[in-house]
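We treat protein structure as text, and this decision shapes the records that our systems exchange. Because each token names a local backbone shape, the row as a whole describes the fold. For reference, a complete record is included directly beneath this paragraph.
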Amino acid sequence: MEFDQWLEKLKKENKLILVEGIKDKRALESLGLTNIITLRQKPLFQIAEEVAEQAKDAIILTDLDKEGKKLFSKLSTDVQKLGVRVDNRFREFLFKETKLRQIEGIKRYAEKLSETL
């Protein structure tokens, strides 16, 4: 799968997307994604409860650094305990198929890709 296919699939899925901060949210919104929640304002357990109230499925796109992996693990466990399925495919794609390690850089990454086409 190519990055643009990944992005289209992510848009079509229209699942709740969880990101670390406002820059991450803005970067995804600039690519046409909606339905995004940031993690920074509240404790994780509270976010997990809100997610469970809003959705049956969620996508967690935390950064691919040590802190982001820790957040992903904790949040993933918390929401799954509340019955929310975590769709890991999109995060796995970024991790395995791109050099991108921070979600806020996704817009620049997409722009660079389109320049090379």
In short: DSSP finds six helices and four strands in the chain. The CA atoms of residues 80 and 86 lie 7 Å apart. Residues 66-81 form the longest helix (16 residues).
